[in-house]
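Tutorial, part two.
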Amino acid sequence: MRSGHCTTALVIATGPKSKRFSCEVRTQQLIRPKNVLSGASYSQARRQPNRHSLRLMSPGKNSLTQHQERRSSQPRRKLWLLWPVILAGEAIFLLPFVLPRLFRPTMLEAWGITNLDFGLAFSCYGMVAIIAYGLGGPLADRFPPRWLMCIALAATAGGGIAFLETPNRVLLCCIYAYFGITTILLFWSSMLKVTHDLGGAKQQGTAFGLLDAGRGLFAAVIATALTLLFGQLLPLKDEASPEELAKALRAIIMVTILVVATTALLIPIALIKLSRRESSKPTSLETRNSLSLLIRRPAIWLHGLVVLCAYCGYKSIDNYGIFAVDAFHSSDLEATRLTTLTFWARPFSAIGAGLVADRFSHFKSMAILFLLAAIGNASLALIVPQTLQWSGLMMVAVSTAATMYGLRGIYFAVFDDLHIPPTLVGTAAGLVSLIGFLPDVFFGTVTGFMIDHYPGRQGHQYVFALVCLVSLIGLIACLLNYKHTTNQATTPGDNA
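Running the prediction step on this input gives:
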């Protein structure tokens, strides 16, 4: 340092070499360079936030929307990794739901139980599932999804062994309570989190549409194979005895257990590439505030109501087979074929709904589907068997089921519309599912009571009228949520 001068040395690294530059700034000179602001201008510039700070400090932008902005800049994920999730996502529900949907009349006759008994079992499943949804969401945010899904599939296959006996009402309720733990606590939120992660910022509808379409295609293939096998196992005569039905049903259950167990072995191997991807975990701040942030959002509660209404319609498909038997006096095999045909509507309606929703609007697409579902269920309620042939029943049933499958394909694709960050998707999915799948508690019992208490066509009319009303409620909830999210986007200061 020399008197009256200041020497500053700058070192700039350029590859293996470095160049040293020295510049002397004469502090005695009072002339300020042109590119240096005056004192007042400098103070004003210090007070003016830059563009980056302005974006972070803008009103209405909390941690949720900041995560959303960062996520929108990420490249699209490869959706081909969804195939193991698709297989697992349907395999785990084969035992508790697909088999009763296909073989409900056979199960009632072979096991000597009633529709009310099945309704009570579904209610036990739903009560356990309500607790499992709340706990399973944070669990999916904390642990590797592939191992949670593997354990869930293996445990579900083990529980299916109890179906090989002849369960009474109590045992059936215990089996379904156990399925509530294996299918929901360990599996459900993990599946949704993986799908949301693979969908990226712009392919949510497509990802969830592919998930439900693939699950529907897999279910249709399995249902067709089981129906053909069931037909081969039954004697050639028209009416089979309860013992023959029970023997054929036992073989169907054993094949289904084998499919679920095989999927359990496949899922950790197939999803190993997913575990190598960069995984995001919630920070300690987000962990503490996630539930409070989500619970304070009216859109979460409205969407829970949307899922609830759609799920009521979806569960009503379980009654199509028994409706054909009670109202049209069809055989067990014909009823099974009708239900199998509705399975084939699922892949096409789900992927179609997903593609349309991504192109236009998730909420508007769901509103249209709810309207069509209401029309379809009203038609089923007003059908007169004497004036409608079997082909007409199949057309109405399949088209109505298609609207339900379309709703299932997109009602979990709205987390980005609700401004949910990836680190909280599991928790948000658990909260929405807790509300949306409440029909597991009451719907089976209510519809089972209606069908048993009002025999024949009358009980089914009440069921379809109820689903029609619920579909209209879902339509209103969709429109309200669309209005709420639109107002939230146009008024940044309101982020509630």
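Strands lie at 5-14, 17-26. In part three we will examine how such features are distributed along the chain.
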